[in-house]
Amino acid sequence: MLFDMGTRVHFALLFHVLDLDRCISTRYIPSLQMGTTLYLRNLPTRPHNRANYIRSFLSAINPTNRYVHDTTLLLPIHQISGTQAVPGPFLDETHRILSIARSNSGSMAGQCFVTFVDEHSAEQFMNAFQGMNFRGKRVEIRWAEQESLLGLALTQPERFKKVMRIKKLTMEEIVQNKVKRKLRRLRYKLRRKGLDPAQIEDIVAKVRVDVVDDEEVEETEGNATGMETVVQPTPKSNTTTSSTTKKVPKGIVDVTANPPAKLLLVQQLPETTTETQLRDVFDGPDLVDIRMVAIRRLAFVEYTSIESATAALQKTGTTFKMDAHDIVVGYAKS
């Protein structure tokens, strides 16, 4: 049966709509183009330790991988800072894998992103391991909707620089918005404690605006940690006011009063600090993750238990030297 041009166009559009509806109904929006980054889902959620998880995955795809055979080898680190990215060695030379990124958060559990050195390597991997069985799970592999920063740096360096500039601006905006919200809350609490407007503004003016993260301002709300000068609340009656001055090193969150926790806060890091350097200091069988906040020169080091974190803190002490810098370590606020 022959159709005229208008009819053929109509059917083509109809099939396109049906196909799009099928994609949406399965919650799968196909990537518009290939790249160096693959998205993997339906993965097991354990082990929680990042390094152990990566080694387990590498063992499933390449039992001869050197990081699988020698667990004393530190996993490679890729430096991404400012508008530059410096790739480290391969995680897996056979499949030309550069990095594997995953999260332990509930919404992202069972998912990861794998970055390859080029598009061809990523396509070969997807064809070879689509539907692979990984620790009892049938893994689904598809092109990532967005390139990883590392993949972007390798394939589109100019776009990578633009993204990093925007990312920096966005992060600064987020931090400033957090500061504003927390300071509003601080003003409210100080008003409830009976301080007059002049005293409140005097205290607020002494709070550092470049807050490291929520931890610092929450400490400020609770016991005025983070202020250079702390004024105690004035009683509502006309009794004599008293003030207490407490000096804290500028740029450091006072964590000495924090109770033991699984998370350590590492501060005053040199700007050139790498995750590899921190792993050399804090690595151990119970280490879960190290999250660096380079722009604030700090890192969070997470362990599986309070006991493990305490052992690590006892090993380093509350201060230690790194590249001639005094590094400050303590329990993060939980």
Automatic annotation (TrEMBL):
Residues 36-146, 262-334 form the RRM domain. Pfam families: RRM_1. Keywords: RNA-binding. GO terms for molecular function: RNA binding. This is RRM domain-containing protein. It comes from Huiozyma naganishii (strain ATCC MYA-139 / BCRC 22969 / CBS 8797 / KCTC 17520 / NBRC 10181 / NCYC 3082 / Yp74L-3) (Yeast).
